[in-house]
Write a structure and sequence with these properties.
By secondary structure, this protein is mainly β. Helix content is about 10%, strand content about 45%. Strands 28, 29, 30, 33, 34, 35 and 38 form a seven-stranded mixed beta sheet that branches. Strands 2, 5, 6, 9, 10 and 11 form a six-stranded mixed beta sheet that branches. Strands 22, 23, 25, 26 and 27 form a five-stranded antiparallel beta sheet that branches. The termini are far apart.
Length: about 525
């Protein structure tokens, strides 16, 4: 047997020594450390009778010393492969597949297959099979078509390394709306998942992820790809840019993939559409025309085209002052409202005889406010003071970029209704409060005058006889000025600084009451005791 085997080996090594009837096909494999690997293999031999088939796998070249697995004697193998390497293929069916469990980087090498047909002969196939064992699995491979077009069914394939049939990795895609995932296993030691969806512009520039999870080895690897979907122009619109003078710039914008390469402009005048045959994304049109004209653009790329909505060019009478604009005269101010309907940017100014007011601001006499809600612009003018007589107020409007000015004289109405009654009542209350305050001040002033007069009536003593006693007549005259009753209890009136207010009654006198005899009606201030510094 050994002589025959040696002769076969020599025949194989010699040029032209092979008959060409022996054949074997095996696929190279990449495995993950700590997992298993199956090397698929098929073979064929010449059609001759034999009693049994035996096979073996070797490392390096044919030499029994490096046996990995042997069907005739499973224990005849290298020590490092005993119990973890086995030929799992059906030899009678010409299947020579090899499985190795718990692989490690040391198993990375080339392997040869040997077959022994008892009663006929044996053969070592000279083409080796490559095995590579990885410490960390490779990242998934993502395969996608060169072009995605909107409205077509798209397929994206994600492939992960899988060399152990009973320990396949878990393959998952990142969530993608309106999509489905089909998992299939391909030849070549890979597991694949196909992501299927209807391509849309919403998927353009969207990044999706594919992850492979190996439970046995606790490895997770991930890859991502950013989609590029071709779609026709979308969101086509025209932007108006006003320039001082008589020119308006119209700019067309649109979103498409590939980018828009052509812009076409159309004019609508008196319900007729005209192709302006103007090229470019931005065009210039006249401003302040008397007739109403609109423009729209059409954006085109390789996938199609789309049109914008028409945009109206403002005429010289583009802004309108609404008839609801008016002025209302209140007791304390004049309030004017100027209501303007305008689509473009405008300036509103106020004027009255001898004065021109700005769009916004305040100078202590007037205040202006400005607000816009869509196409409605409201400007408010408040002229302060009740004594100001205003006979005429004008509201003027002009386009902020230049153009003809329009003006309206506003009607002045007197305050009425509940608002007028309320203001009238407040005015009356203010007058009553002011009158009371004035009366108190006048009373205080009279007290001061009387006190000053009494001081002036006292006897004046000269420097030569200051200690002289008054004669009986003078003494009786002085005594007659004192009250006849006992020490009178009096009312002490302390005047305070009056506070002028229309909203509340301010007590301008602080009164201290002492029970006693009331003064005579003709001498109202006889018992007044004025406190210095109260005023």
């Amino acid at each position: 047997m050994g002589v025959v085997r040696l002769m076969l080996i020599c025949c194989i090594l010699l040029p032209g020594g092979t008959s060409g009837e022996w054949s074997m096909k095996a696929l190279p494999r990449r495995a993950i450390s700590s997992s298993c690997v199956v090397i698929p293999c098929i073979f064929d031999i010449p059609s001759h009778s034999y009693t049994a088939l035996n096979a073996a796998w070797y490392k390096y070249w044919y030499y029994w010393k490096y046996t990995v697995a042997y069907t005739k004697d499973p224990n005849y193998a290298m020590t490092t492969f005993v119990g973890r390497a086995k030929i799992i293929g059906d030899l009678d069916g010409k299947n020579c597949s090899l499985r190795i469990n718990n692989v490690s980087p040391a198993d990375s090498d080339v392997y040869y297959f040997y077959v022994d047909a008892e009663g006929y002969g044996d053969h070592v196939f000279k083409d080796p099979v490559q095995l590579q064992v990885l410490d960390v699995p490779d990242k998934p491979d993502i395969l996608l078509p060169k072009d995605f077009q909107e409205g077509t069914l798209a397929h994206i394939i994600c492939k992960c390394l899988s060399t152990c049939p009973d320990n396949q990795p878990n393959l998952t895609w990142s969530e993608l709306l309106t999509s489905s995932v089909n998992t299939i296993t391909e030849n070549g030691g890979e597991i694949s998942a196909v992501l299927t969806f209807n391509a849309s512009f919403k998927h353009h520039r969207l990044t999706i992820h594919c992850m492979c999870d190996y439970p046995q080895t606790k490895h997770q690897v991930e890859s991502s790809v950013t989609l590029s979907v071709k779609y026709s122009p979308r969101n086509t619109s025209v932007r108006m840019i006003l320039e001082k003078g008589e020119r308006i710039y119209l700019s067309c914008s649109s979103d498409g993939n590939p980018a828009v390469h052509n812009f076409t402009w159309f004019k609508i005048s008196q319900k007729e559409v005209t192709n302006e045959k103007l090229a470019g994304q931005t065009i210039v049109v006249p401003n302040g025309l008397k007739e109403e004209i609109s423009y729209y653009c059409e954006a085109t790329n390789l996938m199609g085209s789309s049109q914008s909505l028409p945009i109206r060019i403002p005429t010289e009478y583009g802004a309108v002052i609404l008839p609801e604009s008016r002025c209302t005269q209140y007791l304390t101010n004049l309030t004017c409202l100027c209501l303007v309907r305008a689509h473009a940017s405008i300036n509103i100014t106020w004027s009255m005889p001898g004065r021109t007011l700005g769009q916004k601001g305040s100078d202590g006499i007037y205040e202006t406010e400005w607000a816009r809600a869509g196409s409605l612009v409201t400007s408010t003018l408040i002229i302060k003071g009740s004594n100001m007589t205003v006979q005429m107020v004008n509201c003027s409007v002009v386009n902020s970029q230049g153009g003809r000015r329009i003006q309206r004289r506003l009607e002045i109405q007197a305050v009425g209704g509940q608002g007028g009654t309320r203001w009238g009542l407040m005015w009356k209350i203010g007058l009553v409060a002011a009158g009371g305050a004035v009366l108190i001040v006048l009373t205080t002033v009279i007290c001061l005058i009387i006190k000053a007069l009494r001081k002036n009536k006292k006897p004046v003593q000269n420097g030569t006889n200051q200690n002289r006693k008054a004669n009986p007549e003078e003494q009786s005259e002085i005594m007659s000025m004192k009250p006849k009753a006992k020490k009178s209890k009096y009312v002490e009136i302390i005047p305070t600084r009056p506070k002028m207010s229309q909203n509340k009654d301010v007590k301008n006198l602080e009164m201290k009451y002492n029970h006693g005899v009331s003064p005579e009606p003709n001498d109202l201030y006889a018992n007044c005791d004025f406190v210095d510094g109260a005023l």
